[in-house]
Amino acid sequence: MITAIVLIQANTDSLPETAQAIADIEGVTEVYSCAGDVDLIAVVRVAAHEDLAALVPGRISKVPGVLDTDTHIAFRSYSRRDTEAAFAIGLDNDA
Question: Which residues form the Transcription regulator AsnC/Lrp ligand binding domain (predicted)?
Fold first, then answer.
């Protein structure tokens, strides 16, 4: 599974509608509105790089209100949840 973070510049007049339209696209797992240099951040999870290549320019960039995108592919996750899950593999709680 390929995870990518897509930074999105959007028209602020239609930010909620733009964010919801992006969230409704298959492969987009989360969309956040935020303060700072970008208006929206989308988390995308797809099976192959070809899917990502079709999703960002072919779907996300064409949503009304999207002005620009900047995509970052994640190599590895370092979240606490992922670390705890890795160490829990094979553990039997009944022991």
Answer: 6-76
